[in-house]
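dumping this here before i forget
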Amino acid sequence: MKKLLTTMLLLVLALCLPGSLLAAEKEKNPLEDWQPKFDPKGAKYTYILSNVSHPVIEGVAVGYAIRDRVWEKSGGRLYVDFRPLSQMGGEKDVIAKLKLGAIQGMMSSSVAAANVSDLLGIVNLPYVVDTFDKLDTFRNTPATWEPFANGAQKQGLLVVDVTGYGPYGWATTTPVKTVEDAKETNFRIAQAPVNTDTYKAWNLKFTVMPWPDVPQALQTGVITGLDHTAIVCNITKKFTIAKSFTELNYAQGLFVHLINKRWLKKLPQDLQDILLSVISEESAKARAATRTQHEAQVAQAKEAGVEFITLSDSDIATLKEMAEPVLEKWSQKIGPEYLETVRKTLK
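structure:
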């Protein structure tokens, strides 16, 4: 009888387990909805494109739009193998792989882009490219865009376009309504040189911390504030802990699309043209979609009880004045004439 029961139990497990494993496996794959509707095995050329974030963000999902259109326009000759969610590693590691040619493309966060080239840090300087309209002007004006697009050539890279993830602010566990309030907050900031210089200039407490460590640090009170965008904070559930958001709007969160120049030049000319034109067209669409997504995510967060706060004009003026030494320091790295051109154009 015991042997019979054991046999029956094993049989039940054998019948049930595969289905359970398949269901669990499907749940573990957050990219199931973005799988290609074509078989990429026949492609003659492959473009591996990395990003650290989730494609539910419009500025990230553009990678899949680029993949599908390039496949169609190239007749299946070029496959854009888009790898979001840090599949290729953290940003510093991916930058190194990109320079070596181990991967061919990267949509780098703007905060990390300054690690590629000082000039790319211009888009993260406080109150320079700080609104959606200024970003469009920056991208569509040759005098501001072309130096940026060529700003990483010494590293063997080209900047081909940018997408976004919204304007930066402060998600905090206690409401920050003034600059004085901010002095009581310990902010998590990205591992980026411009951010470090800015927070030092603002004389605020900050902790440089990798993104994966943020949830636990917020829960335990190691940090009490987060320097990021409303889109990211709402989508990644940071507002479940940090229930206030101060709309600082000092910079646009961007993904800077970098390509290994040596690899690009080896592509047949028609495929180069297809890839670059599709990236340009789809990135422009993504920037427009990001505006809409920002409004939707803010509305959703407000409905869920998140308090959105706007600093007074005098407090914003104070932050701008305190940040001037940062802009002066970085003007020497970026080029004083270029920074001046950008500031005058976007004024």
